[in-house]
Amino acid sequence: MRAERFLSILIIISQKGLVTGRALAEHFEVSLRTIYRDIEKISEAGVPIAATGGKGGGYYIMENYTLNNLFLNKKEIEPLIAVMDNLKFLFGNNPQFNDIVLKFETLRNTEKKECDNLSIDMSHFSMEKELREYLFLMNKAIEENRILEFEYINRKMEYLKRVVEPIQIEFTDGHWYIIAFCTIRKDYRKFKLVRVRNMKLGGVFKKNLISKEEIKKIFSESYEKNSILVTLKFSSEIGGQLSEYFSKEKITLLENGTYIVEDFFPEDEGLKKFILGFGNDCEVIGPDKLRKKMVEYIKNIYSKYND
């Protein structure tokens, strides 16, 4: 832990140029005397840290001394800095994460010209403020084995209370999720953050050791159990866009220029909405049960506009 603090102190001073001992003590939540000892040890290791006294004074690294690039080359740094830029916005004032960001911002100062051709946005337009707050709470809950309590909006727009034991934060298909054991449903669940409201920390829980592979298997088996095989027919006009929604091995081009997609989907309200999102370019071929449900669904929509 002390070695990590040494490196972070060095990075902070390098990044900011001039830092007071008191500011370092507050950042690491240690005494000023501890910072004095740390600076002394860093200097003994050969890093030329100097100090100026009085108002506006502090510690600085002497000229012509630069930190190396942490063994990363320019091409490796580029995507990492793009990711860090975005995550810094999302994580807000997370002390642990901000120490990591400082290290990458130091790299930016030396490699800036090589790091401007990639941009990544993992925020969500409808909940930027909440996302930062929730990511902080979820990280804290996972690190400290704390319960998370929140309201979860289901597809019926009902607000359901959830009390969970968090395991992992996931970003996939453009959305953030918290993977956790739901103490109410007594099962492992994946909660989409855009549906979460009023998240707060609860008490400490005893961590259940489960691997990522086991979690993945549980979700995979649950998906297959609640899914049906669906066959969809698409017009030639939309064919070029299908790879945005389906894996290429699921798409078949017919001789007449139309496309067939066969894949498993959860049998719920979201499936009908997903299909309708393609408008007149998509037709349900099977199963017949789903085709009939789509007919009724479309009739119900039509009735609302048929004055």
UniProtKB/TrEMBL annotation:
<keyword id="KW-0804">Transcription</keyword>
<dbReference type="InterPro" id="IPR057727">
    <property type="entry name" value="WCX_dom"/>
</dbReference>
<dbReference type="Pfam" id="PF13280">
    <property type="entry name" value="WYL"/>
</dbReference>
<dbReference type="InterPro" id="IPR001034">
    <property type="entry name" value="DeoR_HTH"/>
</dbReference>
<dbReference type="InterPro" id="IPR026881">
    <property type="entry name" value="WYL_dom"/>
</dbReference>
<dbReference type="GO" id="GO:0003700">
    <property type="term" value="F:DNA-binding transcription factor activity"/>
</dbReference>
<dbReference type="Pfam" id="PF25583">
    <property type="entry name" value="WCX"/>
</dbReference>
<dbReference type="InterPro" id="IPR013196">
    <property type="entry name" value="HTH_11"/>
</dbReference>
<dbReference type="InterPro" id="IPR028349">
    <property type="entry name" value="PafC-like"/>
</dbReference>
<protein>
    <submittedName>
        <fullName>DeoR family transcriptional regulator</fullName>
    </submittedName>
</protein>
<dbReference type="InterPro" id="IPR051534">
    <property type="entry name" value="CBASS_pafABC_assoc_protein"/>
</dbReference>
<dbReference type="Pfam" id="PF08279">
    <property type="entry name" value="HTH_11"/>
</dbReference>
<dbReference type="InterPro" id="IPR036388">
    <property type="entry name" value="WH-like_DNA-bd_sf"/>
</dbReference>
<keyword id="KW-0805">Transcription regulation</keyword>
<dbReference type="InterPro" id="IPR036390">
    <property type="entry name" value="WH_DNA-bd_sf"/>
</dbReference>
<feature type="domain" description="HTH deoR-type">
    <location>
        <begin position="2"/>
        <end position="57"/>
    </location>
</feature>
